[in-house]
């Protein structure tokens, strides 16, 4: 507390006929309060200021606010506004008692509530980050073969969100300096992730997942081309008929029935696909079960990869519907949870 001085201290004392003593002092008071920035920028900070006497106890002196709404109202409302903040003053007319020194002391409490203008944060942080996420969905309608255009769109969007995250941290440092009148180089400290950090990290994660989806599509396309070439070579090798030799021996070899059956079995097995041959040869005991499970897993993995690399862009079509749906669900849950928590803390601070 610092008393204002012009030529002398701005203070006066008056004694009225009804034994009323009035003391007026012009002073500047610097108040420091504990603040929780977990809900930043949806946080509401409350600071209680008690005015009382250190010397006189409750039995000697009682402090209370003057009951005159015209001169000193109990609620000043939101008339005191700053560019980014709303400050409200509310007087507590209850009997407030604090124990210190040699007994209980009466105090008159003034509750100062600080809240932020959410409009500026919506326009500067939430709206641009949402637009960046929506821009990343545009990559799903770009042909997967256009690698430079699609990669530039996703990487640029991802870097823009990272830059925005750094900008928010710097702005938080300026906010902390204004509210607490101290020099800090980092954002307001909190025990958990702040509200706006959760939003920006989630938006960055959505864009990163879109980039991962494109990597999966590229890998599937590469695997699909390799599989098609291999299948074409296999079909050409199996489809070519074997011509009998023009000149050769006409000798006839006598073979037994068992040898002929064995030759027929080997010929039938050779005409089967590789996976079926493996299943036929190992169709007994625990080895068959393990091999069958492994082959089934490989078959499912192959189908998934071929599905991702489909030339018709099947995975992109699914992602174009799935990503917006997940983002809408996340946005609804985000705003409902944090707005309810902010309102609950604001009501608890008033009570």
CATH superfamily of the domain at 35-117: Neurotransmitter-gated ion-channel ligand-binding domain
How many β strands by DSSP?
A: 8
Count of alpha and pi helical runs? 7
Mean pLDDT: 74
Distance between the termini: 27 Å
CATH level-3 fold name of the domain at 35-117: Acetylcholine Binding Protein, Chain: A
Main sheet strand line-up = 5-8-7-6
Overall radius of gyration? 39 Å
Q: Any low-confidence stretches, pLDDT <50, length ≥5? A: 173-186, 240-287
Globally, the shape reads elongated
Order of helices and strands: EEEEEEEEHHHHHHH
User: Could you give a short account of the major beta sheet?
Assistant: 4 strands, antiparallel
Helix-residue proportion: 40-55%
Structure class: alpha+beta
Secondary-structure arrangement, i.e. CATH architecture of the domain at 35-117? Distorted Sandwich
CATH class of the domain at 35-117: Mainly Beta
Report strand %: 15-25%
Give an account of the 3D structure.
With 351 residues, the protein is an alpha+beta fold. Among the domains are: 1-30, no CATH class; 35-117, Neurotransmitter-gated ion-channel ligand-binding domain (Acetylcholine Binding Protein, Chain: A). The protein is built from seven helices and eight strands; from the N terminus they run E-E-E-E-E-E-E-E-H-H-H-H-H-H-H. The protein has helices at 118-137, 147-180, 195-239, 257-271, 274-281, 285-308, 314-350, and strands at 2-3, 11-15, 21-25, 27-28, 44-52, 80-81, 85-100, 103-116. Strands 5-8-7-6 form a four-stranded antiparallel sheet. Strands 1-4 form a two-stranded antiparallel ribbon. It starts with a strand and ends with a helix. Residues 173-186 and 240-287 have low confidence and may be disordered.
